[in-house]
Design brief:
There is one protein chain. This protein is α+β, with helices and mostly antiparallel strands. Among the domains are: 2-108 and 201-228, no CATH class; 111-199. Helices cover 21% and strands 42% of the residues. The chain contains six helices and 29 strands. It has helices spanning 13-23, 27-32, 111-141, 154-199, 314-323, 414-420, and strands at residues 2-4, 40-46, 50-59, 65-71, 75-84, 89-99, 205-214, 219-228, 231-241, 246-256, 263-266, 268-271, 287-291, 339-341, 346-348, 355-365, 367-372, 380-385, 396-402, 405-412, 422-426, 430-444, 450-463, 469-476, 478-480, 486-492, 506-513, 518-530, 535-538. The chain has a seven-stranded mixed β-sheet with strand order 1-5-8-3-2-12-14, with no helix packed on it. A hairpin with a 7-residue loop joins strand 17 and strand 18 (380-385). Helix 3 (111-141) runs antiparallel to helix 4 (154-199). The two termini are 63 Å apart.
Length: 539
């Protein structure tokens, strides 16, 4: 059974009354109903920006109270839930915060055991080093002359000197090794102590939850609460086998938290329920052509006023807005949550350190093509397209490998990747050449009433591969945004689309190009507009 924490009076008189009643019980009853303490974390469900933590403790028969101590100070009080075995009935909950120092050793860091083990190793090394120092000091002060060697045969003295020399050398070498080992352990110990001291800030508050009980038979009591801040971020590794046309897509998760409590060897479930090196060249933007608006003359009453500062152009403001950095880690889309149960137990320290988890992989068939945007980039790039794998694949960073070699990183969005593909770096065996563009401008139409401009572009693509490739060439074309702007376009050869991915003004050619062959692509655009107007272009 589950009992959510009452929303109206979690910290009010009923809980205090229960505590006072418990204090008023006879001493014998008090001893029989001692509070159950010593909870442990038994499960964590992690969301993109929060976590639900479950703690469990054992309740003895006859217990009247249980205490969950040393909880994060920032836990969400409204999220508290208590469940218990059939032999335990749950009453009131009381939540309070208090300084860590009042709880003494009850809030000792889980790092203490690791720190003590390292300190014991350092102490053992120091003891051995001290013994060596004592022995070498004795040998250093041992005199071989005078009474110590009187009556000793010369041969025996020589043998003793040799033995002392060998023993001293071994002792000094061992002493050096011990010093190196001590240094290594001290380096390992230093961050652990710092993290423990940070977590054990005696003035930092911690939360305590007290639960009134009726437990005639005893059993397990479970407390669940939510904390803000911890989270997980999806990450991927994409490995392309270009010869086989296969893509191995590995799903990863980067987990981090700084809630104030360490998650040590706990089962973790990841849920989507809550919400560089360049690998490809730039893509063309639509070529928009319009008419600059004519400025209205000032009103008569405004002629004698001082000129106000001109507002920033709309285009400049938009550019500034686009340049602002985005701090959104990732965006999770979809109507239903997907959960990933990590098969092994995981330890995540409260230091904010990232822990990477493997969540499985998919082997996908791909369609390979080489993409070029000659007007913007003199390189061609290998693109792999694949069907969206089953399940939910939240957007996240992806490391890209082509035929076993790392080529760069990008961002994987499963929906767009199935449409646009993933770029796996440059294809140096495909040459991209741009012939000198031609542009002519003048007047045309009846009695020269319109301005006219002609733009001509020519591109040449060379396939230096021995085998044929699927070639995709992208280019921008003018799109009239005004009724008085007329655009005529002619292409050679004819493109497959003049609205690539639904973008009007982005032209795409796609064809097979044999090994060692070349292909020329041409575009000519004729733009005309009224003679008394000024053409406005945005590319």
């Amino acid at each position: 059974m589950t009992h959510p924490m009452p929303s109206t009076r979690p910290l009010r008189l009923p809980a205090l009354a229960g505590l006072l009643l418990a204090l008023a019980l006879p001493a014998a009853a008090q001893s029989a109903a001692a509070p159950a303490t010593g909870s442990r974390i038994t499960a964590v469900k992690l969301y993109p920006g929060s976590a639900t933590v479950q703690r469990t403790l054992r309740v003895a028969p006859g217990a009247r109270q249980a205490v969950f101590a040393c909880l994060p100070a920032g836990l969400d009080a409204a999220s508290l839930q208590v469940s218990a075995d059939a032999g335990v009935r749950v009453g009131e909950l009381a939540l309070r915060q208090q300084p860590r120092e009042l709880l003494g050793s009850a809030c000792a860091s889980t790092l203490d055991e690791r720190i003590r083990a390292l300190e014991d190793q350092i102490a053992a090394l120091a003891a051995e080093a001290g013994g060596i120092d004592f022995a070498t000091g004795y040998l250093k002060n041992f005199g071989l002359g005078g009474e110590a060697t009187r009556g000793t045969p010369p041969g025996q003295i020589a043998a003793t000197l040799q033995a002392l020399q060998q023993g001293g050398q071994s002792a000094l070498l061992r002493r050096h090794q011990l010093a190196r080992q001590q240094q290594a352990l001290e380096r390992e110990l230093k961050p652990l102590r710092a993290e423990r001291d940070r977590a054990n800030d005696q003035e930092a508050p911690v939360s305590t939850v007290q639960v009134t009980l009726s437990a005639p038979q005893g059993g397990e009591l479970r407390l669940a609460y939510q904390v803000r801040g911890p989270g997980w971020q999806p990450a991927y590794r994409a490995s392309l086998d270009s010869a086989a046309g296969k893509l191995r897509l590995e799903r990863l998760a980067q987990v981090a938290q700084s809630s104030g409590e360490d998650w040590s060897d706990v089962p973790i479930t990841l849920s989507t329920g809550q919400p560089g090196a360049a690998t490809q060249g730039p893509l063309p933007r639509p070529w928009r052509v319009g008419i600059e608006p004519t400025a209205a003359p000032p009103a008569e009453g405004q002629l004698r006023m001082a000129a106000a500062p001109a507002p920033a152009p709309v285009a400049a403001l938009a550019k500034t807005a686009e340049a602002q950095p985005s701090f959104d880690v990732s965006v999770f889309q979809g109507s239903f949550a997907t959960e990933f149960v990590v098969p092994q137990r995981v330890s995540v320290p409260s230091s904010g350190e990232r822990v990477t988890l493997a969540l499985g992989e998919q082997l996908l068939d791909t369609r390979l093509r080489v993409r070029a945007t000659p007007a913007l980039d003199a390189s061609a790039y290998l693109i792999a397209s694949f069907a969206t794998p089953p399940g939910v694949w939240p957007a996240g960073p992806v490391n890209l490998y082509r035929d076993g070699a790392y080529v760069g990183s990008a961002r994987l969005d499963a929906a767009s990747a199935s449409r646009d593909g993933l770029a796996f770096g440059r294809d140096d065996l495909v040459g991209v050449r741009v012939e000198r563009p031609e542009q002519q401008q003048g007047t045309g139409g009846f009695i020269g009433s319109r301005n006219q401009r002609s733009d001509s572009r020519r591109y040449v693509i060379d396939n230096r591969h021995r085998d044929a490739i699927t070639l995709e060439v992208l280019d921008s074309a003018p799109v009239g945004e005004h009724d008085d702007v007329r655009v005529e376009s002619r292409y050679q050869p004819a493109p497959q689309t003049e609205a690539w991915n639904g973008q009007k003004g982005v032209v795409a050619w796609e064809q097979s190009l044999a090994g060692g062959a070349s292909q020329r692509f041409g575009a000519e655009h004729l733009i005309s507009w009224p003679k008394d107007a000024r053409l406005r272009e945005r590319r």
